Amino acid sequence: MSSSGHITHGGGVHEHDEINMPGLQGKDTTDQEVNDLKEIFRSHEGISRSVSNLQNGIVTTTEATDETLREAIVSHVSMMVTRLQEGRNPDVIIQSPTLDALFDVYDEIDTEIETTELGVKVIQTSSNPKVVGLLQQHAAEVSDMANRGMEAVHERMAGQSP
Questions:
Q1: Does residue 33 have a pLDDT over 50?
Q2: How far is CA 116 from the centre of its chain?
Q3: Is residue 162 part of a domain?
Q4: Is residue 12 very low, low, confident or very high in pLDDT (cuts 50, 70, 90)?
Q5: CA triplet 26, 105, 116: central angle to 5 degrees?
Q6: Are strands 57-64 and 119-125 parallel, antiparallel or unpaired?
C-alpha cells in the first residue's frame, strides 16, 4: 500500500477501503443513506442515466435493471430531494462543491420526482440562471460518477487539492 492509501491491482488504482467507504459518511447521514451510496458506487456499471438540460433546469432519468441497485437509486434520490427541499446538507465527505452550492440556494429550486419502471426521473428548475448552471453542473458530475464510480470522485477530489 502506498502512503496515499491506494492499492494497485492489475494496473488499476482502488480506494484502500472500498468495503466500508468512510468517505460516504456525513454530518447526519443515516445508515440507509450510506448503504444506498455504497450500493450505487459498488454497482455503478449497472446504472443507466440520461440528462437533458433545459433552459431553466434539468431532467434526469436514472435507472437500473438490477432490483437491489434500482431500490438504492430510488431511495437515494428520494432522500436527497427531501434533504434539498428542507435545506439539510448532508456534508458527505466526498460530495462536490457544486452540491454544497445547491444547498445554499435550495429555496430557489423547484423539484418534481417520479418513479419509472426501472428507476427515477427528476425535473429540477429555477428562475435564477446561476442556479440553473449549478443544477446542470451537478447533473454532469452525477453522470460522471454513474459512469466511472469512485474513480470520478477521486479525480475530482485530487483536482481540488492545492
A1: yes
A2: 19
A3: no
A4: very low
A5: 70
A6: antiparallel
Please report the pLDDT score of residue 159 as a whole number: 77
114, 156 in Cβ contact below 8 A? no
Whether 2 is in a domain gets the answer: no
Number of domains the chain contains: 1
Q: Please name the residue that has the C-alpha cell 428562475.
A: 127
Q: Is 0.70 topped by the overall pTM?
A: yes
- E strand residue ranges, 10-77: 12-15, 47-54, 57-64
**pLDDT on residue 150:** 84
Q: Cα–Cα distances in Å, from 8 out to 24, 44, 60, 123, 155?
A: 22, 20, 34, 40, 16
C-alpha–C-alpha distance, residues 32 and 12, integer Å: 29
Domain-located, residue 108: yes
Query: Which runs of E-coded beta strand occur in 12-162?
Result: 12-15, 47-54, 57-64, 110-115, 119-125
Residue-number span of the structural domain to which 82 is assigned: 17-145
pLDDT in tens, 48-106: 999 999 999 999 999 999 999 999 999 999 999 999 999 999 998 788 899 999 999 99
Phi, psi torsion values for 14, nearest 5 degrees: -120, 140
**In contact, 32 and 79? CB cutoff 8 Å:** yes
